[in-house]
Amino acid sequence: MEKIIVRGGNRLSGTVKVEGAKNAVLPVIAATLLASDGKSVIRDVPTLSDVYTINEVLRYLNAEVAFKDNTVTVNASRELSVEAPFEYVRKMRASVLVMGSLLARNGRARVALPGGCAIGSRPIDQHLKGFEAMGATVKVGNGFIEAEAAGGRLHGAKIYLDFPSVGATENIMMAATLAKGTTILENVAKEPEIVDLANFLNKMGAKVRGAGTGTIRIEGVDVLFGADHNIIPDRIEAGTFMVAAAITGGDVLVQGAVPEHSTSLIAKMEEMGVIFIEEAEGIRVLGPDKLKAVDIKTMPHPGFPTDMQSQMMALLLHANGTSVITETVFENRFMHVEEFRRMNADVKIEGRSVIMNGPSNLQGAEVAATDLRAAAALILTGLVADGVTRVTELKHLDRGYVNFHQKLAALGADIERISEKEETVVDEEAYITDMNA
Ligand SMILES: CC(=O)N[C@H]1[C@@H](OP(=O)(O)OP(=O)(O)OC[C@H]2O[C@@H](n3ccc(=O)[nH]c3=O)[C@H](O)[C@@H]2O)O[C@H](CO)[C@@H](O)[C@@H]1O
Ligand SMILES: C=C(OP(=O)(O)O)C(=O)O
């Protein structure tokens, strides 16, 4: 078993570079399947286990995929298969994002049902509602979702989402690019990752307008081509390092962080007394001696991101006074609370809220990550806990963070990652096909 071991007490300082965004790269790689002509070259791709998984899904679907030097190259011009099996979808729910592309490209898709996960049941009814409105017949059975477009091609439609779901917005947007006619998608997600996907689709020859607003209009085209694209910086990784600086009273330049992508987070942290300085290269974060308590409610973008909820909980445990966090996006995203309690945190759950009386007298303990952001949050707590914190279940961390402990160590944290027995290292090189050959 692998563990991260943190000894609390060090103040962080220096510069940390942000990777490309996981939540932008996964839909963009899924979108490369739409190109029946030419190669797509995706740059600034983080070396995360989720990226390896989506690459495997694409290879399974008969696309040629190479991943080298943070660049993914996809040639999807061959005939594609239509089925994404459970062994991939189980590893990563975002595999369901290939459904829109496959349906648009092949007129048919068969994707394993994603099932529930630690943070909530995460249904995909809104994705399916969109496909149906565009003329697909959708059947769910034997653990699969099967969708087939009448006459082999989807048609444009007017679709209103019940909730601004990120995944549904992306999946329907991809499906609509090759549909006959115009799709108008209302009450959509406005996350920066949606805008990044729309920009990539437009480079491929799609006609997508309005991404980043509440309504997206997609005029269907007959064919899409491979395109070259740089992924936006990861605002959640950036935010995690902002919290690392703040919690240790540190001084850290988060290189590549985009202020407009983190407005709600920065505003809340400023309320807590954290100082932010915009510099040419990124955002410099100065942690105060004493942090103030605040209340937070997670919301779809531009509201406070649920993906920063557990890291902010770590910060609020260290703040002076009573804070309340209310989680409105996922119904079960408080699994980390029990782990924080093992670290002597004064925190309790009341319905969809968590109440903290800070500052907690945090103590090092052995704790298990319950999802990827919880993994980061427990490590952040370890930075200020008294004694040694050991964090297990690191497979979650590796889904969303590249070299997390090395980056913290370079900023001055006393942290290491150990393996209690020989681990099998997955050699991505083995999968690499030379696309230029
Ligand atoms: C790979 C990726 O980009 N993941 C992000 C994406 O996940 P994901 O795209 O899965 O999140 P959604 O925005 O779709 O989900 C938000 C809420 O809507 C519900 N819902 C969603 C779809 C649907 O058809 N029906 C339904 O009820 C979900 O159960 C959840 O409670 O956005 C989330 C919300 O910002 C983030 O936490 C994830 O990091
Ligand atoms: C919940 C997350 O991701 P996913 O949707 O890939 O599980 C996340 O990035 O915090």
TrEMBL record:
Binding residues for UDP-N-acetyl-alpha-D-glucosamine: R93, R122, P123, I124, D125, Q126, D307, V329
Positions with a binding annotation for phosphoenolpyruvate: K22, N23
Primary location recorded for the protein, binned into one broad class: cytoplasm
SUPFAM superfamilies for the chain: EPT/RTPC-like
The keyword Cytoplasm is annotated on this UniProt entry: yes
Catalytic activity: phosphoenolpyruvate + UDP-N-acetyl-alpha-D-glucosamine = UDP-N-acetyl-3-O-(1-carboxyvinyl)-alpha-D-glucosamine + phosphate
GO cellular component, as recorded: cytoplasm
Sorted UniProt keywords: Cell cycle, Cell division, Cell shape, Cell wall biogenesis/degradation, Cytoplasm, Peptidoglycan synthesis, Pyruvate, Transferase
Subcellular location: Cytoplasm
Pfam families registered for this protein in UniProt: EPSP_synthase
EC number(s) reported in the record: 2.5.1.7
Biological pathway: Cell wall biogenesis; peptidoglycan biosynthesis
UniProt signal peptide: none
The keyword Transmembrane helix belongs to this UniProt entry's keyword annotation: no
Active-site positions on this chain: C117
GO molecular function list: UDP-N-acetylglucosamine 1-carboxyvinyltransferase activity
Sites of 2-(S-cysteinyl)pyruvic acid O-phosphothioketal modification: C117
Family from the record: Belongs to the EPSP synthase family. MurA subfamily.
Cited HAMAP family: MurA
Functional description taken from the UniProt entry: Cell wall formation. Adds enolpyruvyl to UDP-N-acetylglucosamine.
Protein name as catalogued: UDP-N-acetylglucosamine 1-carboxyvinyltransferase
Protein source organism: Cytobacillus solani
